[in-house]
Amino acid sequence: MQTIGDAFAHDHRRLEQALAASMAHAGAGRWEAAAVAFAVFRRGIERHMEVEEEVLFPAVEAGAETPLTAILRKGHRDLRVFFDELDDALQARDADECARITASIRALLERHDEKEEAELYPVAQARLGTNADAVATRLAD
Amino acid sequence: MAEYRGCQLPEDLFYDLDYVWLRQGNDGLITIGVTDPAQTMGGRILSVHIKKLGAALRPGRHVATLESGKWVGGIPVPFAATIAERNEALLADPHLINVDPYGAGWIARLRPDDPAQALAGLSTGAAAMSGLKQWIDRYDVECMRCSD
């Protein structure tokens, strides 16, 4: 059986690689490939955040938002603005802006992912118990 | 000035009830900065990036990005605007945001596309104080004053 922590941490690493692939294309001036790779990253991370927001956060909250889930929800909102800005920079083919925004996204994701892996997933695993495997499967739906 | 859980909350400013305060100037420009509870949540700010002078921003887009050892965040503009002035002193000393968030730590001055409506969706006065107190409780923030 796969734990929630294992499945979501693995997805974090997969998404980091997807973002890196997009920015490698951008850095080399392959703008169409960069846009395609960014769309793959964006679909993946939106799916990841959606499962957290629809399943993990409510399981941890048990009816009342906590400071932890409030901060993580805010992180998702902030990330979505950065993703929109990176999409704009890719369309404008602005390499400097792509690099700057990507650095902010990576820094934000590093801190956000650490918090989720240390504080959210263990509690969600305990609350969801035997349903954890089905939740992890939703990441790949 | 109101205070709640150690956080200073000026009643005369406008707020998006998240990170941002705004102050209307006599010259048609609107100054933007981050609130005392928001800078507290961010921790000691180590770097600030402010978008270029003249950059046009849509509502919700970031005028600046702040980074501390534990936090990275974008500062969104609540209305469409152009950047008319940047706080160059803040770029040299990002910690000003922690020391004086409503004064020397201002981020930029904005020229709104629609001056008549720019502040219409924001909160001020008693409604803002209530909303900011809810924000402080939601994120469990306790403000402390920085001395240096």
In brief:
The complex is a heterodimer of chains A (141) and B (148). Chain A is mainly alpha-helical and 141 residues long.
Following the backbone from N to C, one meets helices and strands of chain A in this order, namely: HHHHH
Determine the most extensive contact between two protein chains: A-B, 15 and 15 residues
Measured by DSSP, the beta-strand proportion of chain B falls in: 25-35%
Radius of gyration of chain A: 16 Å
Q: Biggest sheet of chain B, in brief?
A: 6 strands, antiparallel
The run of helices and strands of chain B is EEEEEHEEEEEHHEH
Count of alpha/pi helices of chain B? 4
CATH architecture of chain B: Beta Barrel
Which term fits the overall shape of chain B?
globular
Low-pLDDT sequence parts of chain B: none
Low-confidence stretches of chain A: none
Q: End-to-end span of chain B in angstroms?
A: 22 Å
Describe this structure in words.
- The complex is a heterodimer of chains A (141) and B (148).
- Chain A contains five helices and no strands.
- Chain A is mainly alpha-helical.
- In chain A, helix 1 packs antiparallel against helix 2, helix 2 (31-61) packs antiparallel against helix 3 and helix 2 (31-61) runs parallel beside helix 4.
- The two termini of chain A are 18 Å apart.
- Chain B has 148 residues and is α+β, with helices and mostly antiparallel strands.
- Chain B has a single domain, classed as OB fold (Dihydrolipoamide Acetyltransferase, E2P) (Beta Barrel), CATH 2.40.50.100.
- In chain B, the strands form three sheets. Chain B has a six-stranded antiparallel β-sheet with strand order 3-4-5-11-10-7.
- The two termini of chain B are 22 Å apart.
Task: Give the key terms.
heterodimer, A: 141 residues, mainly alpha, 5 helices, 0% strand, elongated, B: 148 residues, alpha+beta, OB fold (Dihydrolipoamide Acetyltransferase, E2P), six-stranded antiparallel β-sheet, three-stranded antiparallel β-sheet, 4 helices, 11 strands, 20% helix
